[in-house]
Amino acid sequence: MASDPRCTFCWKAATDLCGRCKAVRYCGRTCQRADWKTHKVFCGVEYPVKDGKVASYRGVLFAVDEEKPRFMELPVSNIGDSRTASILPMVVQALGELRFGLRSVNHHGRLANVERELMRGQLVLHCHNYNFNVKDDLPPNLALREFTGLGMEFDMPGAVVITKERRMRTEEFMDVELDDLKDMVDILRFQMRVSAEHRKIIKNFDMLGSLERIQQQYDNETEHQSRHTEE
């Protein structure tokens, strides 16, 4: 049963293949239509060619200067002087200058399904660990807007990379596949909404701080005028 084909959208038993790319399966037309807005971005796109001389794993890059996300190969390299092999150095390189450090978020998927997670692994979102208190010049990510369908109020600034691990926080890497796209949308939409909420909180704190400063200034001026009047 574990090897039976599953619907990429709902994870039920699948019977139909995408007629164009022949790479993902669905349980019927309903799920296929529901998934098309996401799937069409990559439908028919060929995976990057792997270099047989260097171990690598496929991820997805949401670059700030591109309108759509794309697959990319992330070669494995050693971290520092250790023998620990990782794709993180290439992830960092793809993200560009990390002014506030790297933030990586694991995603458990849409279903609490152990069998599914063992078969398909878990996605990891890598992005800039930006500080909403600091005004920065990280450009908006248009590829994220295109892929998720969320507006500019949900922007996550800077580039974003999606990778996949066999189990959470193990760095047992796997290739991101076409049937991971729905989970990718889920984790991106969730994190973009979290970012929007953080911005609201910071804005409210800034507004509260401004009101407190205005009140303090008013109190100081009132106290100064009272002293002047008494004199």
TrEMBL record:
GO terms for molecular function: zinc ion binding. Residues 7-43 form the MYND-type domain. Pfam families: zf-MYND (PF01753). It comes from the Eukaryota. The keyword Zinc-finger applies. The keyword Zinc applies. Keywords: Metal-binding, Zinc, Zinc-finger. This is MYND-type domain-containing protein. It comes from Arthrobotrys flagrans.
